[in-house]
Specification:
The chain is 82% helix and 0% strand. It is mainly α. It has one domain (2-345). Helix 13 (253-280) packs antiparallel against helix 14 (285-307).
Length: 346
């Protein structure tokens, strides 16, 4: 039962990660940098430090007992995630929620699960659980490839009646979007590296009798500060550079500002909930729970994209291929759950 609760929390975290960027495509009076900068600011202010200060009474003592190398590793991982986040927003802006989240989360999965396992637990790669995990990732990549094909067919169908110059521009945008996705996917895997590097912080929190659900909060406060400071500074820098800072005064609470608040809660909230679930899943939860969260994000992002009309006029072929891709992703999710069970019992 406890293991199942961990999986449910990981899935919930993934759903939030798949949905947090929806406001990027919905704002009417703001530009990309407006929603990204304010959303990042709220993400920095609303959750990380209030949560850790409320739940960890001896935070100063906890941090004083941690080696400096752990701090450096966690913060640098957070910086990498932050830089990846700026590219994430650009990718969503170009590719849309459903296709963008699918490609991004798939890339992050590879660099955030298999690479850490090979780095920190290399022996586990050559066990039944490791083999199943690798198989799951291969199936996941296959699913991502199928959904990418569906996305290309969607673009072609939706632009089939437009003039050739617009079609050429869309094609170039798709290629640029893929490059941006690759950069973001590599760097954004830093969030899981931070969680793994920060294991001594979690252990110290346990020793200080911090509640079980809050033992990872002292990690996230550091990671989120590094991440969201970069994204906030970037967003406001672009507002000043592009002369769009004044547009903040034009945003309505029902759309722009509410969207920024939603981003500020869902973005870090999904990672925090994932951390709680991964801890519950056992010692290998960080390696297997992460791709499970990614898959939940992909499915949530695709559902949101469909509801928002991103697949309108895409044609039956594109939608059929996308459904096949989603079924393959579900298969990968099942394999991931089985790999965790195997690694915890080996």
């Amino acid at each position: 039962m406890t293991y199942s609760i961990g999986i449910l929390l990981v899935v919930l975290g993934g759903v939030l990660e798949g949905l947090f960027s929806i406001p990027i495509t919905k704002v009417k009076k703001w530009e990309f940098e407006n929603i990204w900068g304010t959303g990042s600011l709220f993400a920095l202010l609303l959750l990380p430090w209030p949560l850790v200060l409320l739940n960890v009474s001896d935070l100063g003592e906890l941090y004083s007992n941690i080696p400096d190398t752990v701090f450096y590793a966690v913060i640098l991982s957070g910086i990498a995630w932050g830089i990846g986040g700026t590219f994430w927003g650009k990718a969503i802006n170009i590719m849309g929620v459903s296709l963008g989240v699918t490609i991004l989360m798939g890339l992050i999965n590879v660099f955030g699960s298999i690479v850490p396992l090979a780095s920190f637990e290399p022996a586990k790669i050559f066990t039944p659980g490791g083999y199943v995990l690798i198989t799951a990732v291969v199936v996941l990549i296959l699913g991502i490839s199928i959904t990418s094909i569906a996305g290309q067919k969607k673009e072609k169908a939706q632009n089939s009646e437009k003039i050739s110059t617009i079609k050429s521009s869309k094609k170039n945008n798709f290629k640029i979007g893929l490059i941006i996705c690759l950069i973001s996917g590599i760097l954004s895997g830093g969030v899981n590296f931070a969680f793994i590097f920060g294991a001594p912080i979690t252990n110290e929190a346990i020793a200080l009798n911090v509640p079980d659900f809050a033992t990872s909060f002292a990690i996230w406060s550091l990671v989120f500060t590094a991440n969201f400071l970069i994204n906030t500074v970037y967003g406001f820098y672009m507002m000043i550079k592009n002369g769009t800072l004044r547009k903040l005064s034009k945003g309505s609470f029902s759309r722009e500002w509410l969207g920024a608040i939603f981003m500020g809660l869902a973005w870090p909230g999904g990672i925090i909930i994932y951390g709680i679930g991964a801890n519950i899943m056992g010692p290998y939860g960080a390696y297997v729970g992460f791709p499970m969260m990614i898959l939940a994000s992909i499915l949530a992002g695709n559902l949101a994209g469909a509801i928002n009309g991103e697949w309108k006029n895409s044609g039956a072929t594109a939608r059929r291929i996308m459904m096949i891709g989603i079924l393959v992703l579900f298969m990968a999710f099942t394999l991931l759950g089985y790999s965790t069970f195997l690694m915890n019992t080996e």
